Structure formats: structure tokens, C-alpha cells
Amino acid sequence: MVVLDSIYGKHIVEGVLEELILSKPVQRLKGIHQGGASYLVNEKWDVTRFDHSLGVMLLIKALGGSLEEQIAGLLHDVSHTAFSHVIDFVLDCKDEDYHEKIYDQVIMESEIPFILKKYGYDCEVIVQSKWELLEQPAPELCADRVDYTLRDMYQYGHITMEYVNEFLDHIIIIKNGRMYLDNIESAEWFVKTYYSEVIDFFMNPLNIYGYDILAKTLKLALAKKLISLDDLLGTDEEVLSLLSFTKDHEVQNLLKRIHGNVKVKEDQLDYDIHRKNKMRLMDPSVIQGTQLVRASSLSEKVKKMGIEAYKKAAKGIYLKVISD
Q1: From 118-127, 157-166, 170-179, the region with the lowest mean pLDDT
Q2: What is the pLDDT of residue 177?
Q3: Distance (Å, rounded) from C-alpha 220 to C-alpha 214?
Q4: Alpha-carbon gap, residue 121 to 103, rounded angstroms
């Protein structure tokens, strides 16, 4: 199989990875948008969980990660429900981790264990192992965090491939199998880009509006038993179809409010919606001789960006709906 990725280019994939890519759980991710409700209010915000999962796999490969860790990277998001993190607002999951809570179940009840066994891999080992390149606690770098930041910001026109490639060239993998940077300039660039993602994009007023109204729609539909949590293991469009066929006026009225012509603005005094996202901060370690040093200790820019991002995330977004 030949895969062509917008960030990492053309790659040949075969064997277990090819079969996993073609499996139903991974193919389903083509219908799950990375930004949750974002594509419903701006059709250009259309990166999918499939794009991201494939990218994480390819990034781990490029950084020298094992085939097992590439598998883990490809599979790490298969348990995301329709509309990704919108479910966390529906179920009040403050850590935005509902997909992690159901991950083992979704994997084990799928064809994935059989595919892995066919190629001599133990599914439980893949699922339960701690993969150092794939995931790290914030504020460090990891393949998941790096890929979604670069992918969204490139796709939506905020950075160029020239800067992406230059950044990737400055990632260093040391003995513990983790990602670090070899100069402070790369750290400053990535921190700025990361906050463009998690503050300027995730907390974009239009994005917040879409999340809020869709979360209210799903919460109401679940409460009225018009849909079930199992239904949310379908694709975005499948769930929208279920919602659109209900005859419930409250649900229909909410759905009608989610479209691309909505007008909103930030207003802390006269607002209709106030919402906070999970706190996401970035302060990668930089190699200085034989030491690893936090970027904020080396750069006043990084320190200031972190303080500002913390303030914005802690305050949340106050929105006034001008027209919907």
C-alpha cells in the first residue's frame, strides 16, 4: 500500500500496518473530524482522526520508533466517538478523556486483536504498554501532540512546510526514547505554533460555539433516549443522520443553530455562552550539553507565552451570539 500524507509525504506500508489501516475501526476514523464540531461551522476545518492517526504512525516511523510503537500510534484514537472531544462536554469529562476510558473495550471487541495475532503480536501488550514516543504528559513533546499541532496549523494555513520540515530536523531522540529539541529557537517556534492550535484554534469563538450547541444537542438526545452512547461509535455523519430523523422539536431547533453562517463575538459583560477547555500547556525540554532544560528557563518568550496561555485557558471564552 502507498500512503500519501500532507506532512510526511509518500510512504510504502505493508503487512500488519496495511491490514490495520484497512480494518473497520481505523477506516471509521475517516468519518470522525479531529476538531469535533468545527467542520459544521467552518467547512475548511476538516482534518480527520484518520489523517492524524496515520500521521502519528508515520512520525513515529520517521523518528526510529519500533513497528510495535507505529501500530500503537496508528490505533491510539480508534475509540474516539463521533465528533471527537464533544462527548467530553456532553458527559462532563473535565480531562477530556472519555475515549481513553473506553479504549480497551473498543479495541478488544473489534477485529484488531485477530489481525495482530495473525502477525504474531499480543494485542494486550500493544494496548497496555507505555510508548514513550507516542505519548508524554504535558508540557513535553510527543508524537501525538506534535502531529496534531503541525497538521492542523499547516492544513489551515498558519505555517508552511518549510517551517515544519525545519522543526522536524531539530527533534532529537535520546536513550529514554523520548523527543527533545536541540536548540531553543525550535522550541520557541513550536510553543508559539502549539498555542496557535490550543488557544487560537481550539478556543476560537466559532469553535467554542459549535462545541457548545452540539454538546447540548447530543446531551438532550441522549437524555430523551433518541440516541445511545453506542450510536456515538458511528461516524459524525451517521450520528447527524440519526439526529436529523428524530421528530423532537428541541433537538431539531438546536441542530438548526449549527451552520457556517453563525456570527459570534467575545464579550465578557454581555454573553450567551461561557466555556473552558482542558488546560493545555507546552514547555519542551531542550538539550544543553549533557543536560535537559525546560525551554521556559532558557527563553523569556516561552515563559511569557505560557503565562498568557494559562490565563486565557483559565478564564475561558465568553461569547455573545450575534446571529445563528
Answers
A1: 170-179
A2: 86
A3: 10
A4: 18
What is the 3-class SS of the chain, one letter each residue? CEEEECCCEEEECCHHHHHHHCCHHHHHHHHCECCCCHHHHCCCCCCEHHHHHHHHHHHHHHCCCCHHHHHHHHHCCCCCCCCCCHHHHHCCCCCCCHHHHCHHHHHHCCCHHHHHHHCCCCHHHHHHCCCCCCCCCCCCCCHHHHHHHHHHHHHCCCCCHHHHHHHHHCEEECCCCCEEECCHHHHHHHHHHHHHHHHHHCCCHHHHHHHHHHHHHHHHHHHCCCCCCHHHHCCHHHHHHHHHCCCCHHHHHHHHCCCCCCEEEECCCCCCEEECCCCCCCCCEEEECCEEEEHHHHCHHHHHHHHHHHHHHHHCEEEEEEEC
- The mean predicted confidence, pLDDT, of the chain is 96
Instruction: Round the CA-based radius of gyration of the chain to a whole number and report it.
Output: 20
**Per-residue pLDDT at 62:** 96
The pLDDT tens digits for 226-279 are 999 999 999 999 999 999 999 899 999 999 999 999 999 999 999 999 999 999
pLDDT at 175 over 80: no
Whether the CB-CB separation of 321 and 217 falls below 8 Å is answered with: no
Q: Is the pTM of this model over 0.85?
A: yes
Please answer whether residues 283 and 290 qualify as being in contact, where contact means their C-beta atoms are separated by less than 8 angstroms.
no
Q: Determine the pLDDT at residue 176.
A: 76
Question: Cell digits for 158?
Answer: 498558519
Count Cα neighbours of 44 within 13 Å in the Cβ-side half-sphere: 8
Residue positions counted in the chain: 324
Closest CA to 88 of 78, 80, 98: 98
Distance of CA 158 to the CA centre of its chain: 17
